[in-house]
Amino acid sequence: MQNTYFFTGFPGFIASRLIASLVHKDVTARFELLVQPYRVEMAQAAVNELCQAEGADPERFVLIAGNITETGLAIGEDYLDELEDRVTHVFHLAAVYDLAVPQDIAYRVNVQGTEQVCQFVRRLHNLRRFVYFSTAYVSGDRTGRILETELSVGQQFKNHYEATKYEAELRVQELRSDLPVTIIRPGIVMGDSKTGETAKFDGPYFVMRFLDAFAKFPLPYVGASEARINLVPIDYIVEATVYLAHADEAADGVFHLTDPDPYRAREVYERICQELIGKKPTYTLPSALIGSALAIGAFRRFVKVEKETIVYFSCQAEYDATEAQRVLQSAGIKCPDFHSYIEKAVAFYKLHRDDPDKMILVR
Q1: Could you tell me which InterPro entries the record lists for this protein (predicted)?
Q2: Within 10 A of 265 (CB to CB), how many other CB atoms are there?
Q3: d(CA 149, CA 185)
Q4: Which CATH class is domain 4-189+231-257?
Q5: pLDDT tens for residues 222-232?
């Protein structure tokens, strides 16, 4: 039977990269892409660009105007009936990824949207895999070693993004006893390790935006924590996910796609300073002071940094990726070392730092 891949989250960066990879891996596959109605034109342009870049037949792609938060994903019942027999793989990536997202929006999209996708998945007659994109940070405020087999241990959460992604993963976990489910928990996603390409300057790129604002002054370290920060390039996420989506031993698994040997946040910050500004920090400011400054709207809009970002540089969690490493080892898939790609990431940022499409609106 021909594979049909059903995606939410297109034309987002990770979904687009996954589809580009799958186009080559599975040359006869069909792609059904659920897109919000107002994004259909943008999605069509993305499909056209992908087909041109990858040499793929446009007939392999179908754009479906819909909405994950509505019953039946807002897809017509007749077409749903067709998808029931046709879809073999579901990749659910649609979510609100903003750390500053309000609770009501986060809950509607991340939790209720995932509930609707789960109901859709239950309808499929020929499902071979349901791949759900969670996050390593469903761990919330936990510290110490965190296993892939763990989820609910009484943790609290640093923001509504984490809380709702946790709630969403609970819904997906309920399917594991009946369906072939693969849950992906990425660390903090960086750009491509070979080209530096990324879609948005969020996460660690907020550090670069902060440094841009104070490049002419002596640079501080932010806090004296020995915490490590878990960064992973997008190409590792894509290569690992495509493999896990087809590996039989990953059909009922949860995988930390994290760096097994992460660096201290202080070292990461120092390397970014050197690459971007050409100098090292010379003194230390308490992270609480920076956090208080970012709580002031005028200041965070000036530096273009969300206040929720700061806590991730003192996060004491250690993400055990034993199961992911075990399964991926047979395919020779490894997470690239941070120092091997940060130069490219910073170079890409320098080239595109004024591109409004890559900016995150900071309120």
Answers
A1: FAR (IPR026055), FAR_NAD-bd (IPR013120), NAD(P)-bd_dom_sf (IPR036291)
A2: 25
A3: 11
A4: alpha beta
A5: 877 789 999 99
